[in-house]
Amino acid sequence: MDSTIDILGDQEETLGTAEDLREEIAVEVVQHEVVGSHVKIEFETSKGLCTGYYFVNELGHEELNMEPDSVIILTNLFPDYYGAYINPLNRDWVDIDLSVKYDGCPEYKIYNRHVVL
């Protein structure tokens, strides 16, 4: 009998299980982020891979410039999609901003980060 506790509930379809996340996350930091760095990130949704870019700033709440295919994926998942940001308290997560405010916001774990400049 499997004694696994489902702590993700409804998010399981989007995020998988905690064990899946541990296996899939392969964050490789080639360089440390410094103010002004240009960074490419990728995160997986239930509809596919999303890619975005941001410039590191002093505030730590950078807005992502998402690739066009990623915007299509996010608007299919969230019709009220308004933008995406790096979470200022945990920079391994992306926060999805919605034009209609709800309690909490969707978020995704970054599994690939590459400093390009």
Notes on the structure:
With 117 residues, the chain is of the alpha+beta class. It has three helices and six strands. The chain has helices spanning 12-15, 18-24, 68-77; strands at residues 38-45, 48-55, 65-66, 81-86, 93-98, 107-115. Strands 3-2-1-6-5-4 form a six-stranded antiparallel beta sheet. β4 (81-86) and β5 (93-98) form a beta hairpin. The longest helix has 10 residues, at 68-77. The termini are far apart.
How would you briefly describe this protein structure?
By secondary structure, the protein is α+β, with helices and mostly antiparallel strands. Helix content is 18%, strand content 33%. Strand 1 and strand 2 (48-55) form a beta hairpin.
Task: List its salient traits.
117 residues, alpha+beta, single chain, 3 helices, 18% helix, six-stranded antiparallel β-sheet
